């Protein structure tokens, strides 16, 4: 079983490549906030697993570049990873909603026109001590 963080990176890579197969490794690593070395490792692993294939082409500056194309297995894996990604994000969302509700209950906003709350002994600032 893979780690959720690794699944998230793989999903995001497959998602970006399905939208823009001609993207460079450097631009992809910048978009996803991972190192170029990690991106290279991830792309090689996806190619070895048969989820991606590469096609070379000439860029406008006459340099050889690669297009990363999702294979049928890659499309299937992207769908599987999307489901897990969505479930994790929904769980994070529910946890955040619960935390916000607790904070709103514990620290209600002041009523309009009310004087600021006085600081009690447990609410002193470090500079006051």
UniProtKB/TrEMBL annotation:
Alphabetical list of Gene3D superfamilies matching this protein: Winged helix-like DNA-binding domain superfamily/Winged helix DNA-binding domain (1.10.10.10)
Basic and acidic residues composition-biased segments: 116-129
Pfam family for this entry, one: HTH_24
Region annotation Disordered: where it falls in the sequence: 104-129
Domain of life: Bacteria
NCBIfam families: MarR_EPS (TIGR04176)
Protein name: AsnC family transcriptional regulator
Organism: Rhodovulum marinum
């Amino acid at each position: 079983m893979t780690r959720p963080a690794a699944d998230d990176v793989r999903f995001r890579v497959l998602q970006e490549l399905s939208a823009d197969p001609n993207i460079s490794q450097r631009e992809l690593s910048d978009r996803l906030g991972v190192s170029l070395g990690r991106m290279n490792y991830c792309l090689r692993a996806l190619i070895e697993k048969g989820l991606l294939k590469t096609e070379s082409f000439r860029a406008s500056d006459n340099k050889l570049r690669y297009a990363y194309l999702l294979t049928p297995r890659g499309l299937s894996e992207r769908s599987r990873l999307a489901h897990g990604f969505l479930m994790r994000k929904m769980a994070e969302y529910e946890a955040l909603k619960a935390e916000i509700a607790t904070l709103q209950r514990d620290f209600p906003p002041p009523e309009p026109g009310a004087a600021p709350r006085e600081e009690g002994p447990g609410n002193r600032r470090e500079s006051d001590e």
